[in-house]
Design goal:
Layout: H1 2-28, E1 35-38, E2 47-50, H2 58-70, H3 76-88, H4 97-105, H5 108-117, H6 137-151, H7 156-161, H8 171-190, H9 204-207, H10 219-251, H11 259-263, H12 266-284, H13 305-312, H14 314-328, H15 340-345, H16 347-371, H17 375-380, H18 382-421, E3 434-444, E4 447-456, E5 459-466, H19 468-481, H20 493-499, E6 508-510, E7 514-516, H21 561-569, H22 597-603, E8 605-613, E9 617-624, E10 630-637, E11 643-651, H23 653-666, E12 672-674
Helix pairs in contact: 3-4, 5-6, 5-8, 10-12, 10-16, 13-18, 16-18
Length: 675
């Protein structure tokens, strides 16, 4: 028994020592949090660990730089007065980039940092040197860039991309300065030049707070934090997209891929949201009485026009990207060209549509919070709710403006196509700018026909497509509709025989087949083998010289049943003689498919059926039909005193809304009735 106890104690001691050794090794070499990527180059195809840095937002980046500059004794005395002025600044939104912009604009402060490096590649820069024309700040900045290029802190290519590298108000110049100064500070930190911050200094985070929400935070604070978090994620996606564009343009020649058409003005959107995200993060960290979200748009509303240009060129970007995908897939990048890039390119459109919803939810939460306050406290927070409502209005206005710009770009393309397809060029006179267009089912006499309607500023034009293909298609549809036979699958032939029903119990009447009685022995073709009815059918056995009775596919000369049986026995379908029939689908119940309307529309010429001046429109009625679609009745009073009524049927709710809004824009006084 004592022997067993001794063995147990020995094993327990060895296990304890092993566990202590593992804990000690883990403490010395802690595992980094990494993202696994799939490496298919190796034979085992194992996952490779890739460490990725945590993303730092532009707002947090500027705060960290201010803290690091205060730790440098050589420049802390210059930064501290700027922070005092910023703290005393009575603005609704405080931007941490403002003191940095003032600091960098002097030029000499940048060179103080460069002189601290004591690099063999950089000679000591004279802080009092001026240019030949007497300019000081721009010359000092030029000396800073020259020293950074010599030390390898920034590449000459990046410096050449900046249009104005002396203006700190330029977003690209300021961003490059921030990145370069950050590299200089990293070098100084490795050399032990950074000391402790003087405790008497104002801390940058006291001036620029960050968002911290606990478990018991009110709803408005949680929603504000969500707005801040999603804005930071959006800026990160834009930066990833710009980095991918820079990397791709460096590896691929511009003649192979049109990068300007694919990415558009994405750099301008990124520059805008670097500023906008700082304001959102600052306001989201404020208490309720200081969350004036309407101030986030102050001075930035004209800059949001970049979204109008981006959305208007969306279709052109998609076409250019589709052509460039085979080339982009060959690049060495973390982003997948086929899946990641399209999702990033659509992000600006998605984000612009999210702002009204996010700000409206914050307004609702603020109203709920104010409802629980005393009347005196509610009066103090009225301006906060008004500012949030202003942010909702601004975001809706920007979204509407982007939609209108996109619609105008589409209308310009549609108007050019309309002019090219119009049969008579004289009908283009006095139309004005196109407001909207689309296919409609318009009333012509007692029946409704498929037409195309174009609403211009001065005229409403209703056209019909007039082409030889369209007329032939209509004749073929009428021919097929007169064929009173339902072709069913032979798999159910036994069931039909047992039930006593037979397709051959009626006489076939058709301009193609003529008359065939059931006694003549007409046999149905094998539907499972497929009836080859093709638009591009070249071989036409029925139009060959050997088949003289069938020279015309639509000939009224009836075919004998023996001729039909011979054709069917040879595997030839008598209905395949016409080249405009569409492909037959193999189904248990086979029907004739509709013709290719896109091909017909592309080749069709337009003939004007109705022209109604918009000034003559007196009333518009919007009615709901039984099938859920909408009907639009447009009543007009013509110059000769007669009344005209245009009826558009089978409109979707979205299309009817667009037509109604555009009619009200063309004729502001037109009343709209809904029933």
């Amino acid at each position: 028994m004592q022997h067993v106890a001794g063995v147990f104690q020995g094993r327990l001691a060895s296990m304890t020592l092993k566990f202590a050794a593992k804990v000690f090794s883990f403490c010395l070499n802690p595992r980094k949090r990494s993202l696994g990527t799939y490496d298919d180059s190796s034979s085992t195809s194992r996952a490779v660990s890739v460490t990725r840095k945590a993303y730092v937002s532009p707002y947090e980046r500027c705060i960290q730089m201010l803290e690091r500059l205060l730790s440098l004794p050589c420049i802390a005395s210059i930064v501290y007065p700027l922070l005092i002025d910023e703290n005393a600044h009575s603005a609704d939104v405080k931007d941490p980039v403002r003191p940095l912009r003032v600091l960098f604009a002097r030029g000499c402060t940048l060179n103080i940092l460069v002189n601290e490096l004591e690099s063999p590649f950089i000679a000591t820069i004279d802080l009092y040197e001026r240019a030949g024309d007497g300019s000081y700040e721009s010359h000092q900045i030029e000396l800073f860039w020259r020293g950074c290029v010599d030390a390898g802190l920034v590449s000459e290519e990046k410096l050449m991309r900046v249009q104005d590298r002396y203006d700190t108000h330029d977003s690209e110049c300021l961003e490059l300065m921030l990145v370069t100064v950050s590299v200089v500070l990293d070098q100084l930190l490795r050399r032990g030049r950074c000391g402790l911050v003087d405790p008497r200094y104002i801390k940058p985070r006291d001036i620029y707070p960050t968002v911290h929400t606990g478990s018991g935070a009110p709803r408005y604070a949680v929603l504000a934090a969500e707005l801040s978090r999603t804005e930071v994620a959006y800026v990160q996606d834009l930066e990833r997209l710009v980095e991918y564009a820079d990397s791709a343009s460096a590896q691929i020649d511009d003649s192979e891929v049109d990068f300007d058409a694919i990415f558009g003005n994405i750099r301008a959107i990124l520059a805008l949201h670097r500023t906008f995200s700082k304001r959102i993060q600052y306001l989201a960290a404020m208490p309720l009485s200081l969350q004036l979200f309407g101030a986030a748009y102050d001075g930035l509303l004209p800059m949001f026009d970049v979204y109008s240009r981006f959305c208007a060129s969306r279709e052109c970007s998609q076409r250019a990207f589709a052509r460039a995908v085979p080339v982009l897939k060959l690049l060495d990048s973390e982003l997948d060209a086929e899946f990641d890039i399209p999702s990033l390119l659509i992000r600006p459109v998605q984000r612009l549509a999210q702002y009204p919803l996010l700000f409206q939810s914050i307004v609702d939460a603020m109203c709920e919070q104010c409802a629980t306050m005393a009347p005196a406290d509610q009066a103090e927070h009225v301006h906060v709710v008004k500012a949030a409502y202003a942010a909702v209005d601004h975001s809706k206005h920007l979204l509407t403006r982007a939609n209108e710009t996109t619609r105008e770009a589409v209308n310009e393309t549609q108007q050019a196509q309309f002019a090219a397809r119009l049969a008579d060029a004289a009908d283009l006179q006095g139309l004005g700018r196109l407001l909207t267009s689309g296919p409609v089912s318009a009333q012509a006499g007692r029946e409704f026909e498929d037409m195309e309607a174009y609403l211009f500023e001065s005229t409403l034009v209703v056209c019909s497509a007039s082409s030889t293909q369209g007329s032939r298609a209509a004749r073929i549809r009428r021919t097929i509709s007169s064929l009173h036979v339902t072709i069913k699958s032979p798999r159910r032939r036994d069931e039909r025989r047992r039930s006593g029903s037979s397709v051959a119990s009626s006489t076939l009447h058709s301009p193609v087949l003529g008359g065939c009685s059931p006694e003549s022995g007409f046999q149905l073709p094998n539907i499972d083998a497929g009836c080859a009815l093709s638009l591009n059918s070249q071989a036409n056995p029925l139009s060959s010289p050997a088949n003289t009775p069938l020279n015309s596919p639509l000939s009224n000369t009836p075919l004998s049943c023996s001729t039909v049986n011979n054709l069917l026995a040879s595997g030839t379908n008598p209905l395949a003689s016409h080249s405009s029939l569409s492909t037959l689908r193999e189904r248990p119940l086979v029907k004739f498919a509709t013709l290719d309307t896109e091909t017909d529309a592309a080749l069709a010429r337009l003939t004007v059926r109705e022209r109604v001046p918009t000034s003559a429109i007196s009333q518009v009625s919007q009615l709901s039909e039984v099938d859920g679609s909408l009907r639009l009745n447009i009543q007009a009073m013509l110059n000769d005193g007669s009344d005209a009524m245009l009826v558009f049927r089978r409109l979707s709710r979205e299309a009817a809304g667009v037509w109604t809004r555009m009619l009200q824009r063309a004729v502001p006084l037109v009343p709209v009735e809904e029933s």
